[in-house]
């Protein structure tokens, strides 16, 4: 079977040598997961693996929806975003092991561009590097009449009109292009300013892309969006999101089919999970929960999930071997064989392919 | 006045654990939770709000449908995909603006030929001045899916400085956000020093270089402590070596200790609860003062 590789964004068909019918669930691309979290299962303290098909996800392109995926959601793609309100709960661990346990080609997008880490575990051969830029203004001093229209336009204080002409502060610029549009003298043109880079490559069945924000650059969402646009048509995509609930996360999760929220059973985990759920719901996205270090804390997270009817897809036990494996940069499903089954079962839960 | 900012690059390494414990140890501090996205310090410090204010920042564009001539200029000019034509195809075009995507740049407002776009101020969250058992605290909650967290962080720090001046407290302890982007930059610029809490993993090692590069970009003295260091002693040593080479002061190591989780479930700081980690956090605190 051909491995997915670079330049496949335009690809609309099934991977070569494989018809759509041969790929399990490809024609329907329906993900299903159990939602019986309020049931006996969760009260007994483990997630429901027996899918009840109430969480079913079809690859509609949502044209006409108020949520436009800004081109980050090609046709036929199923996008699973792994996110968490709180950092360090195991997002990357879940995303990486999910990708490694997949039985079919997956696209892995590391959108945690401030601190991208997934490559440390997947160890892809990064064969392509491309800069990501936003457009910032430059002023032609000979033409500038110091009329002040650009300063009036700019909401971010990135261009200041002085007697001698307009002065640009590129690090404050959001790249809206307003100043160039309103300049009556045509003195403003836009040039690229690099904010980071995208690197891509592959490892096994996984085709990998990550974004890396330049140090000292405050503006990460344009880079997150650039990475998200690399979802491939007709394939399964896993997005490793930044932590939090504000603009970079919104840019990473928009238009995905399922947000898998990784949390831990602590007061911090619960508080930040609730925020992340609120964010996902505000964006009209489905979400499900994975509880990491499940036996290390108390029951409040599982009770919350029951109350909110959130499917608990998996509970990962507190296991020092996981922490040690992770610390060495190894993939858990490879280093501790019993977890291969756990993540394979997670795919079953997601795909509704029981037994 | 001393302003110590605790950051981590990578999330979940134990920033808030460390800050809450420092709050327990510091006799005369003002606390500032600058992780406005997912603030957690209040869960341990049980603040009583003395003052609550809305945080309004920037604007958002709203099309007045009655005045809109459906020319589509706003759609053509918007670079953030915020303008949507909700009735494409056969139906008559209806342009609306998705508030989550709107960057608040005002380009559509200025360029609308019939001035049919309003531009009201956007409420992005709330901020609080509170009383805790360890002294005053300034904290905030950014609205979900909101932006401008950097500005809210700057506001929290400004208020913390005001509280510190008014109450004659000479130390501000800042619980910083994860990452290296806008909120982190806003939480550290102009502070006295940063303490980076790292974890001994390949991710921790990777992130420490970026976060220390950020500190040196802003010419700030930096200290390091590795949390749960005994998960991978060799990696701990490597991280300490990397940090020292980048000019950071190595302030100590905190062991893996389940009593930290038990402390948090009880609503206490690690130092209040006690345990091996608490002992070492206290040592880090003392060492930091030799640096400061």
Q: What labels would you give this structure?
A:
heterodimer; A: 355 residues; alpha/beta; 9-stranded mixed β-sheet; two-stranded antiparallel ribbon; 12 helices; elongated; B: 292 residues; 11 helices; 37% helix
Notes on the structure:
- The complex is a heterodimer of chains A (355) and B (292).
- Chain A is α/β, with parallel strands linked by helices and 355 residues long.
- In chain A, 26% of the residues lie in helices and 24% in strands.
- In chain A, the strands form 3 sheets. A 9-stranded mixed β-sheet of chain A has the order 5-8-9-4-10-3-11-12-13, sandwiched between helices. Chain A has a two-stranded antiparallel ribbon with strand order 1-2.
- Chain A starts with 30 loop residues before the first strand and ends with a helix.
- Chain B is of the alpha/beta class.
- Chain B has helices at 15-25, 41-45, 73-77, 107-111, 149-166, 182-188, 202-217, 233-245, 259-265, 270-273, 276-291, and strands at 2-7, 29-33, 48-59, 62-63, 83-85, 95-97, 117-118, 121-132, 135-142, 171-175, 193-198, 222-227, 249-254.
- In chain B, helix 1 (15-25) packs across helix 11 (276-291) and helix 7 runs parallel beside helix 8 (233-245).
- The model of chain B has no long low-confidence stretch (mean pLDDT 93).
């Amino acid at each position: 079977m051909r491995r997915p590789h670079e330049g496949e964004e335009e690809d609309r068909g099934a991977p070569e040598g494989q018809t759509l019918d041969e790929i399990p669930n490809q024609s329907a691309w329906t993900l299903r997961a159990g939602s019986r979290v309020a049931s006996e299962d969760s009260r007994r303290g483990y997630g429901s693996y027996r899918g009840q098909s109430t969480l079913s996800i079809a690859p509609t392109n949502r044209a006409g929806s108020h949520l436009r995926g800004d081109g980050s959601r090609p046709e036929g793609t199923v996008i699973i975003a792994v996110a968490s309100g709180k950092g360090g709960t195991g997002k990357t661990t879940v995303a990486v092991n999910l990708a490694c346990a997949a039985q079919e080609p997956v696209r892995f997008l590391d959108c945690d561009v401030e601190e991208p880490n997934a490559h440390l575990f997947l160890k892809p051969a990064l064969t392509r590097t491309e800069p990501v830029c936003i457009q910032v203004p430059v002023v032609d001093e000979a033409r500038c009449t110091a009329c002040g229209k650009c300063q009036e336009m700019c909401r971010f204080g990135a261009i200041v009109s002085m007697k001698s002409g307009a002065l640009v502060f590129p690090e404050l610029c959001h790249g809206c292009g307003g100043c160039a549009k309103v300049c009556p003298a045509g003195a403003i043109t836009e040039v690229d300013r690099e904010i980071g880079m995208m690197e891509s490559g592959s490892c096994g069945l996984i085709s990998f892309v990550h974004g890396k924000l330049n140090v000292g650059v405050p503006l990460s969402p344009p880079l997150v969006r650039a990475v998200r646009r690399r979802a491939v048509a007709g394939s399964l995509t896993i997005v490793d999101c930044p932590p939090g609930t504000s603009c970079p996360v919104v840019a990473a999760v928009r238009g995905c089919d399922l947000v898998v929220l990784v949390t831990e059973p602590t007061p911090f985990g619960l508080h930040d999970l609730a925020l992340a759920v609120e964010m996902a719901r505000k964006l009209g996205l489905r979400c499900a929960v994975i509880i990491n270090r499940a036996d290390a804390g108390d029951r409040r997270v599982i009770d919350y999930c029951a109350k909110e009817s959130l499917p608990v897809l998996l509970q990962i036990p507190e296991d020092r071997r996981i922490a040690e494996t992770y610390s060495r940069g190894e993939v858990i499903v490879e280093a501790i064989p019993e977890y291969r089954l756990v993540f394979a079962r997670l795919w079953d839960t997601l795909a509704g392919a029981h037994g | 006045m001393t302003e110590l900012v605790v950051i981590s690059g990578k999330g979940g390494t134990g920033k808030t654990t460390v800050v809450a414990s420092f709050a327990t140890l510091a006799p005369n501090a003002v606390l500032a939770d600058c992780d406005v996205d997912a603030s957690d310090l209040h869960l341990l410090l049980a603040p009583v709000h003395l003052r609550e204010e809305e945080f309004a920042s920037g604007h958002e564009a709203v099309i007045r449908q009655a005045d809109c001539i459906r020319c589509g200029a706003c759609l053509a000019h918007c670079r953030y995909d915020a303008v949507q034509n909700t009735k494409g195809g056969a139906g008559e075009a209806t342009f609306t603006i998705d508030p989550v995507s709107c960057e608040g740049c005002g380009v559509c407002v200025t360029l609308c030929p019939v001035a049919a776009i309003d531009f009201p101020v956007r409420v992005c969250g709330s901020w609080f001045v509170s009383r805790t058992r360890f002294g005053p605290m300034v904290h905030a909650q950014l609205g979900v899916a909101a932006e401008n967290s950097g500005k809210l962080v700057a506001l929290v720090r400004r208020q913390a400085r005001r509280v510190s001046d008014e109450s004659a407290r000479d130390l501000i302890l800042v619980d910083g956000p994860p990452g290296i982007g806008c909120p982190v930059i806003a939480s550290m610029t102009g502070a006295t020093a940063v303490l980076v809490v790292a974890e001994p993993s390949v991710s921790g090692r990777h992130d420490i270089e970026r976060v220390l590069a950020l500190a040196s970009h802003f010419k700030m003295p930096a200290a390091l402590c590795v949390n749960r260091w005994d998960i991978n002693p060799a990696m701990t040593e490597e991280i300490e070596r990397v940090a020292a080479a980048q000019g950071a002061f190595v302030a100590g190591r905190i062991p893996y200790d389940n009593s930290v989780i038990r402390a948090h479930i009880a609503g206490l700081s690690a130092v209040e609860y006690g345990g091996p980690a608490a002992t070492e956090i206290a040592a880090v605190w003392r060492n930091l003062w030799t640096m400061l």
